[in-house]
Design brief:
This protein is of the alpha/beta class and 745 residues long. It is built from 22 helices and 26 strands. The relative contact order is 0.11. The chain binds beta-D-glucopyranose. Beta-D-glucopyranose (BGC) binds next to loops.
C-alpha cells in the first residue's frame, strides 16, 4: 500500500509553502496606534460611525468578474458611510469599490472586504467537521492557508472563519462548520485555522474571525438560532476554550452569535464581549455582529426597537454592525442623548482602523486587487493537490467486516449506486463559497478515472436523497447483480446541514435505507460510502452492511480521494470528532458527559439510561478503523504521584498487528475522580497521529502537567484540585487502557 505518511506530507507541504507559515509578524502596536490616532483626529462623527457599519454587497455571489458598482453602494463609500463590505468578491469588483473609497471619499480610508471562506474559496476542502476528523491540526492550517491564498487573490481581506462552536447535538446543522464536540480537539483545530488564514499577514493571507461568540452550538434541541441556557461553568469549560485558543493563535476579530445565553442575546452581552473577551483575555481586535444580530434582539424581546438594540450592543462592546443598520441610523442620536459616549465610539473606530493598518491597506489599498494573481492562484494544481490530501485523511472507516476493503484492483465489474454516487453538487458541502459543481470529481468519476477501464463501471442512481419514489430500485438491483462489488453512495444532500438546516431525525433521509436493503439482498459485497454533514444514526446499515466509509463532504477532489481510499492507495486514518448516536432520541450523546448520581447500569432499572437502548452510542468519539489493526499494551506512568510543579509522563506501546502499514491516532484521556464540582467521565488531553509499518511497534509518550487538570471549580476559579485521577490511552474514547495517579499539594 502506498501513501504519503502524515508527517512527510506536512513536511513536504510546509517546505513548499516557503515562509508562509511564519508566526504573525510582530505588530508594532505603538506605531500603528499613532497612525490610527492621526486618522481618527481628522474624522467627523459621521465618518467614524461609517467605519462601524458593514453592509452586504448584494450582488456579490456572482462570478468573479467586473461589473459596475451600483450607485447606492458607490454613494455610501463616497460619503464614508461604510467601513466594510461582505460578499463583494473578485480582484476587479473589490478594486472598483476601493477606488471609490480612495479617490472619491474625503479621508480616503480603505474598505475591508469580508467573506465566508469556510472550507475553501473556489477549490473546496472537506467541510470543517471532516477536516477535524483528520485529527491533524497541521492539515487544517494547510487548508486554511490555501483558502486564504485563493480568497486574498480575489480581493478578500477577512474571512468569517473559523467557526469554533462546540456542538454536542448533531441535529444542529452547523455542527458541519466546526470541529465537533470536544473543546481540546476544537481548540487545536480552531487555532490551526487561524494560523493558516493569517500566516504572516502577507498579501496572500486574510484576517480570521472566531465565531460565533458564544455557545451558539448549545441551541436547545439542536434547532438553529434557538435558546441557550447553560451555566457559566459549562460555558467556560466546554464552549469558550476554542475561542480562547483562536485568540491566542492571533485571531484579530470575533463575531457575536445569534443566540441568547440565560436571557441575554450575545450581541448585547457585556459580560461576554467586554468582561471576558477584553478584560480577562486582553483581546485587541474588533467584534462584528452576526447578520442583523443587533436588530434581532427586538425579536428576542430584550429591547423594544432598533435604537435600543444599537445602544445595548454598542455599550456591550460590539464594534461593527453587520447589516442591521442600527449603528448607522442611531449612534449619532444616541451620542447626542448621552446614551453612548464618543470615547467608546473612538475606541471601536480605533480597533477597526488598526486592522486596516495591520492588513497594510493604508500603505497599499490595492494590494489584494490584482487580477493576474487571481488568475494564477485560483484552483491551481497545488491547491487541488492539497485539497485531495486533506480529503483522504478526513475519511473515517466505520466498519470493515472480513477485510472487505481495500478493494482488489482486479475487480471486473463494479456497480456504483445511490443518489450521491454521481453528484457533483453535494460533495462541495454547504458554505462552499465560489465552489462550483463542475469543478468537483464525483465518486463515480473518481472511480472511473482510478480504474482506468480495467474494471467495468455500472452506474444507477436508485433513488433521490430525500424522495419517496422507488422507481429506480429495479434498475439499481439489476446493475448490482452484474457486479463483483457494489459501492453504495448514501447520505444527506449538501443543504441538509449548515446554517438553518437543523434536522429532527438523524436517519438516512428518504428511501435510501430501503434501497440499501434491496442492494444487500443481491448477496454481493456492498460498501457504503457516506456523505453527510453530521453524525447519523445508521441502525440497519451498521448492522448489515459489511463496510462503511464516512467521507463527510470532502470538496473538490472527493471522487479521487474516495477511489484512492477504497482501493487502498491510502489507508484510512480519520477518527470521529463527534459521537454517532444509535437513534435520534439518544442525542445529545457525547463522550465527556458527567457520571450522574446513578451511572447507567443495564442491570439496574433505577439508573441513568434509556430502557430501550444500550448505554453506549453507535460509534464513540475518537472512533475510526484502519485497514490494519493496532494493539495497545503497557500503559505506564513514570510516577504514581505528582506535585503541582511536576509533570507526569504517560507511555503506551502501540503495535501494528495487521496486514498493512497504517496511521493511528493514539488518544489520551483523563478523569478527575473527585472534584469540588462534578467532573466529566473522560476528557481528551492529548493525541498523536503516528505511522506504523506492518509489524512495527512504537512507544508513544505524553506529558501531563497540573495545567492540564484545571477546570472551573466550586469557587469559580480555574484551577486544579489535588486528588486521584485516571489516565486512559487508546484507539478511541471508549476502547482504552487505564492507570491511576495522584496530584498532591
Ligand atoms: C451566519 C454567519 C456568517 C454571516 C455572514 C450569518 O447568517 O450566521 O456565520 O458569517 O451570516 O454571511
Amino acid at each position: 500500500m502506498k501513501y504519503i505518511p502524515a508527517f512527510i506530507l506536512s513536511l513536504f507541504l510546509l517546505t513548499s509553502l516557503s515562509n508562509s507559515y511564519a508566526q504573525l509578524p510582530h505588530i508594532n502596536e505603538k506605531q500603528i496606534a499613532a497612525r490610527v490616532d492621526s486618522v481618527l483626529a481628522l474624522m467627523t462623527l459621521d465618518e467614524k460611525i461609517g467605519q462601524l457599519n458593514q453592509i452586504s454587497y448584494g450582488i456579490g455571489w456572482g462570478p468573479t468578474v467586473k461589473v459596475a458598482v451600483p450607485g447606492e453602494y458607490a454613494q455610501m463609500v463616497r460619503e464614508g458611510k461604510v467601513g466594510s463590505f461582505l460578499n463583494a468578491i473578485g480582484a476587479e469588483y473589490t478594486g472598483e469599490l476601493q477606488k471609490i473609497a480612495l479617490k472619491e471619499s474625503r479621508l480616503k480610508i480603505p474598505l475591508i472586504f469580508g467573506l465566508d471562506v469556510i472550507h475553501g474559496f473556489k477549490t473546496t476542502f472537506p467541510v470543517p467537521l471532516g477536516e477535524a476528523a483528520t485529527w491533524q491540526p497541521e492539515l487544517a492550517e494547510l487548508s486554511a492557508h490555501y483558502q486564504a491564498m485563493e480568497a486574498a487573490s480575489a480581493g478578500i481581506h477577512w474571512t468569517f472563519s473559523p467557526m469554533v462552536d462546540i456542538a454536542r447535538d448533531p441535529r444542529w446543522g452547523r455542527i458541519m462548520e466546526g470541529s465537533g464536540e470536544d473543546p481540546y480537539l476544537g481548540s487545536l483545530m480552531g487555532a490551526a485555522r487561524v494560523r493558516g488564514y493569517q500566516g504572516n499577514l502577507s498579501d496572500l493571507n486574510i484576517i480570521a474571525c472566531a465565531k460565533h461568540y458564544a455557545a451558539y452550538g448549545a441551541a436547545e434541541a439542536g434547532r438553529d438560532y434557538n435558546t441557550v441556557d447553560i451555566s457559566e461553568r459549562t460555558l467556560r469549560d466546554i464552549y469558550l476554550p476554542p475561542f480562547k485558543a483562536a485568540l491566542d493563535a492571533g485571531a484579530q476579530t470575533f463575531m457575536a452569535s445569534f443566540n441568547e445565553i440565560g436571557g441575554i442575546p450575545s450581541s448585547g452581552n457585556r459580560f461576554l464581549l467586554n468582561d471576558i473577551l477584553r478584560d480577562e483575555w486582553g483581546f485587541k481586535g474588533f467584534v462584528v455582529s452576526d447578520w442583523n444580530s443587533i436588530g434581532e434582539m427586538i425579536a428576542h424581546g430584550n429591547v423594544p426597537d432598533l435604537k435600543h438594540a444599537a445602544e445595548l450592543s454598542f455599550n456591550a462592546g460590539l464594534d461593527m454592525d453587520m447589516e442591521s443598520r442600527g449603528y448607522s441610523e442611531f449612534l449619532e442620536e444616541l451620542i447626542k442623548e448621552k446614551k453612548v459616549d464618543i470615547k467608546t465610539i473612538d475606541e471601536s473606530v480605533r480597533r477597526v482602523l488598526r486592522i486596516k493598518f495591520i492588513l497594510g491597506l493604508f500603505d497599499d489599498p490595492f494590494r489584494y486587487c490584482k487580477k493576474e494573481r487571481e488568475d494564477k492562484n485560483i484552483m491551481n494544481a497545488e491547491v487541488k493537490n492539497a485539497s485531495l490530501e486533506v480529503a483522504k485523511r478526513s475519511f473515517v472507516l466505520l466498519k470493515n467486516d472480513g477485510g472487505l476493503l481495500p478493494l482488489s484492483k482486479d475487480l471486473k465489474t463494479i456497480a456504483v449506486i445511490g443518489p450521491l454516487a454521481a453528484s457533483k453538487e453535494d460533495p462541495n458541502g454547504e458554505w462552499a463559497c465560489q465552489g462550483a459543481a463542475e469543478d468537483v470529481t464525483s465518486v463515480l468519476e473518481g472511480l472511473t478515472k482510478f480504474t482506468n477501464e480495467k474494471s467495468k463501471i455500472l452506474y444507477s442512481k436508485g433513488c433521490e436523497i430525500d424522495g419517496v419514489s422507488k422507481e429506480g430500485f429495479s434498475e439499481a438491483v439489476e446493475k448490482a447483480k452484474q457486479a463483483d462489488a457494489i459501492i453504495l453512495c448514501l447520505g444527506e444532500s449538501r443543504n441538509m446541514s449548515g446554517e438553518a438546516y437543523s434536522r429532527s431525525s438523524l436517519d438516512l433521509p428518504g428511501v435510501q435505507e430501503e434501497l440499501a436493503k434491496k442492494i444487500f439482498d443481491t448477496g454481493k459485497p456492498v460498501v457504503v460510502v457516506l456523505m453527510n454533514g453530521r453524525p447519523l444514526s445508521l441502525g440497519w446499515i451498521d448492522e448489515n452492511i459489511p463496510a462503511i466509509l464516512e467521507t463527510w463532504f470532502a470538496g473538490t477532489m472527493t471522487g479521487d480521494a474516495v477511489a484512492s481510499v477504497l482501493f487502498g492507495d491510502y489507508n484510512p486514518s480519520g477518527k470521529l470528532p463527534a459521537t454517532f448516536p444509535r437513534t435520534t432520541g439518544q442525542v445529545p450523546v457525547y463522550y465527556n458527559h458527567k457520571n450522574t448520581g446513578r451511572p447507567g447500569n443495564p442491570g439496574n432499572r433505577y439508573t441513568s439510561k434509556y430502557f430501550d437502548l444500550p448505554l453506549t452510542p453507535l460509534y464513540p468519539f475518537g472512533y475510526g478503523l484502519s485497514y490494519t489493526t493496532f494493539a495497545y499494551n503497557d500503559l505506564k506512568l513514570d510516577s504514581e504521584k505528582i506535585t503541582k510543579d511536576q509533570s507526569l509522563t504517560v507511555s503506551v506501546k502501540v503495535k501494528n498487528t495487521g496486514r498493512y502499514d497504517g496511521e493511528e491516532v493514539v488518544q489520551l484521556y483523563v478523569q478527575d475522580l473527585v472534584g469540588s464540582v462534578t467532573r466529566p467521565v473522560k476528557e481528551l488531553k492529548g493525541f498523536q497521529k503516528i505511522l506504523l509499518k506492518r509489524g512495527e511497534e512504537k512507544t508513544v509518550t505524553f506529558t501531563l502537567t497540573e495545567k492540564d487538570l484545571r477546570f472551573t471549580a466550586a469557587d469559580m476559579k480555574f484551577k486544579s484540585e489535588p486528588g486521584m485521577f485516571k489516565v486512559y490511552a487508546g484507539t478511541n474514547s471508549a476502547d482504552v487502557k487505564e492507570a491511576k495517579f495522584e496530584l498532591t499539594e
